[in-house]
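From the pipeline queue, job 12 of 40. The input is one protein chain; the requested action is below.

Action: predict structure.
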Amino acid sequence: MLRFDNAPKKATNLTLNSKVLEVARELGMNVSQTVDALLAKEVERVYWEQWKERNKDAIEDYNARIRREGIWGAKYRTFARSPGDGRVADEDHGKKKAA
């Protein structure tokens, strides 16, 4: 899990659109804080996007196994129905009875 809290701040140079920067300052925005928060969100988004791509095969294999074998112990559950649990949903069951 990505954690960015409690990390020390580091000075850096950015090149920003001068008009956007001017309006941001006129609005009283804290540019450093705003850029830091937006960059953290974008880093997290790109990180998980790349993680999903790197793990795509494993995720597909896992999902195929669940479709094929179901979820372990699902047939013993009384609180929910799920794909692959070996039980027919009530609405599906009713249709099959009528047919």
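Job complete. The mean pLDDT is 84.
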